[in-house]
Amino acid sequence: MLASSSTLPAGIGNGHDVVGRYLCDHPRASLCRFKGCDIDAIARHFNFYGLSHDGRTHFYLRGLSLSPDVQAREGLTNCAAYPVQIHAEDDPWAALKRLAKGASKTVTGDLATLARSADMITSGLYERLVRKRGLPHRSTELRFDVMVEQQLDPESRITLTQQRDQFGQPLPCINWKIGAREIGSVRRLAGLISDEFVRVYLPKPELPNWIEARQDALPAFMDMAHPSCTTRMGTDPRTSVVDTDAMVHGIDGLFIAGSSVFPTPGHANPTLMLLALSIRLADHLKQRHAVAQSRNARNPGQPNLSLHHS
Q: For residues 146 and 80, is the Cβ–Cβ distance under 8 A?
């Protein structure tokens, strides 16, 4: 949209310099970790759990998040931590999978791993088939990663540079900003997890330096490749790009589908919401087209202006 500037110098739908602003993702960081014998103690509480529905078992993974009361009282944003288990080279289930796929580099080594792990395999099959639980693994580390919701910042944005690619299109400049509220929310969640685990007699986690050091260390965040909000939905063209029907303000017939129309990014994976909004838009377009067809039937000879293509 920014690059489509031949007719509108600021770009399509960018009369108020909003296109590309409010760039959000889901900042991700490692929140805490466990090693050695502490791994099994934590994995017993935070493994996969199965729910049966229509004859099938669907597995889910437990996580941890801030309570609504703490968020409201302390002005924190949404964030949630989930366990990530790093399996050892001699994990029997990994060895079994390699052998089954014919991908084993050392067949004798993987067979030896299985022979040494008969008890783990037996108990794992019982857990999986009878109790509907996740498989027990031999691991080198269990950590909790966190995804946090970003607060909207108009200076977090995508703009265009003077450089051009091989097709003559301007290259983007990405200025993704993570604010103090997100960092504070993650730090608070880490502290609560650490205190609560100790209170219920679970192993105390090891926290990363940037959390324990407070202001003395920079936070270590990565993106989740969930960009959103750069053509956000709203009723005010000064702070949004599309209206509640996902049509660009002031440009009849130009619609946008995707996570860029999210008014706020939330902290969960965006796919289901993205699909829901796309289906909603498809329903709106079908209804819009039906109305136009009905109008044309009543007024033959009039041009069909129901849809415009860009």
A: yes
In sequence order, what are the beta bridge partners of 28?
147, 222
Record the pTM. Answer: 0.86
| Farthest-apart Cα atoms in the chain, separation | 82
Which amino acid appears at position 78 of this protein?
A: N
pLDDT digits (tens, 9 = 90+) for 251-304: 999 999 999 999 999 999 999 999 999 999 999 999 999 998 888 888 776 655
Report d(CA 2, CA 188) in Å as an integer.
Answer: 38
Cβ-based neighbour number of residue 89 at 10 Å: 10
In angstroms, the CA 28 to CA 42 distance is 21
Three-class DSSP labels, 53-116: ECCEEEEEECCEECCHHHHHHHCCCCEEEEEEEEECCCCHHHHHHHHHHCCCCCHHHHHHHHHH
